[in-house]
Amino acid sequence: MSVLAPGTRKSCYKCGREAEVMVRYARLYLCREHYIEYIEERIMKTIEKYGLLSGVKRLLIALSGGKDSLSLAYVLSRNKEKIGLTEIIGLHIDLGINGYSEESRESVEKACSELGMKCFILSLKDLLGLSLPEIIRKSNRPPCSVCGLIKRYIINAASIELGVDAVAMGHHMDDILLFYLRNFLLGVKSDYLKLGPVIEAKDTIVAKKLRPLYEVYEEDLSLYAKLRGIKTVGTECPFKHNDHIEKAIKEMLDKLENHAPGYKLSLLRRITSSEKREALLSQEVFTCKYCGSPTNNKDNICALCKLTQNVFGEPRGLYLKQKLKEFLH
Ligand code: SF4
Ligand code: ZN
Ligand code: ZN
Questions:
Q1: Per-residue pLDDT reduced to its tens digit, 201-236
Q2: In angstroms, rounded to a whole number, what is the distance separating the alpha carbons of residues 171 and 285?
Q3: What is the DSSP string of 201-244?
Q4: How do strand 166-168 and strand 58-62 relate by DSSP bridges?
Q5: Ligand 1 within 6 A of CB of 239
Q6: What's the pLDDT score for residue 280?
Q7: Which residues, chain by chain, have CB under 5 Å from ion ligand 3?
């Protein structure tokens, strides 16, 4: 995708007005209005193609305050009836990161009020007794891995507690490719089967997870959010570090995409083919012996209970779930 300079004399293929954007992978010139429409249609087509919303009436959306999840909230809300949803609920976790968390929270509150969407804002300090920076200090583990496991745990547990049919995540194509290639290059054992557009619910302890932005490029989401005037968090999380491997992967992928528009999309589809996704359904899920949440660990202790054992001297999964019950009802 490239934004065109004024006066390039290219016409929008839909309406003939002056084009503002060229979508390279689709070989389309579009005006602002039709570019917005094109991105929304792309998301709708992903939902349809993978049957993401089949059997889903009540949907939870995990909202971080960034462009990805907020754009998703806008698109789904605007098309709520069309896609057969009766209710969309937002969920934001306030991590207690000075400056960044306040701004993220404001962006989520503004978007939800504009969209008339019910939203739960949960503070990590209220749920676990400590903010993310405090937990990171005590755990001595990489910040983003601590943050990721806590968010995954809360989102899953909140979806089960609210009894929604599924939870939608704001992961886009570039996120998924980066995760896959980074782990591959570092030789990290990872569950690639979970990278598809949908993860089915299991045994009433795993909530169904959807990725409606699965086939959407990150740069398209940035431009979509900008053109739609969506206010997103402007500051970067202070824990975000400059990862050289991530930077190299992004550069390599961008070069390949430049050379052959559409490359990223075809790579993504090959990585997470449907046969691989079906294998996921037969995978065994273990249950945490402390809190009953799903875990891949054969020692039957989930990642959150392990982390909290280390930080608080006791597993706090069950404690967190009781707090969720209080805050969500
Ligand atoms: Fe969490 Fe890392 Fe993202 Fe900060 S950058 S919000 S610590 S995952
Ligand atoms: Zn147009
Ligand atoms: Zn647990």
A1: 988 899 999 999 999 999 999 999 999 999 999 889
A2: 23
A3: -BTTTB--EE-TTTT--HHHHHHHHHHHT-----SPPTT----H
A4: parallel
A5: yes
A6: 59
A7: 288, 290-291, 293, 302, 305, 317
Q: Is the CB of 117 under 6 A from ligand 1?
A: no
pLDDT band at 274 (very low <50, low <70, confident <90, very high): low
* 268 within 8 A of 177, measured Cβ to Cβ: yes
pLDDT of residue 279: 59
Atom 2, ligand 1: residue with shortest CA distance = 144
Q: pLDDT at position 196, please? A: 87
Residue 303 CA: which ligand is closest? 3
DSSP character string of 300-323: S--HHHHHHHHHHSS--HHHHHHH
Instruction: Give yes or no for residue 275 having a pLDDT over 60.
Output: no
Cα–Cα distances in angstroms (integers) from residue 81 to residues 48, 58, 85, 210, 267, in the given order: 14, 12, 6, 18, 33
Q: How far is CA 272 from CA 26, 216, 266, in A?
A: 22, 15, 10
Q: Provide the 3-class DSSP secondary structure of residue 87.
A: strand
| Cα–Cα distance, 32 to 34 (Å, whole number) | 6
Q: What is the mean pLDDT of the chain?
A: 93
Residues 88-126 have pLDDT tens digits of: 999 999 999 999 999 999 999 999 999 999 999 999 999
194-199: average pLDDT: 87
Q: How far is the CA of 313 from the centre of ligand 3 (A)?
A: 14
Which of 144, 235, 242, 243 to mutate for ligand 1's pocket (most ligand atoms within 8 Å of CB)? 144
**What residues does 133 pair with on adjacent strands?**
none
Say whether domain 39-233+244-282 belongs to CATH 3.40.50.620.
yes
pTM over 0.85: yes
Cα dihedral 117, 58, 69, 32 sign: negative
* 3-state SS class at 86: coil
**Tokens standing for residue 127:** 């749920």
CA 223 to CA 229: how far, in whole Å? Answer: 10
CA 136 to ligand 1: nearest atom:
7
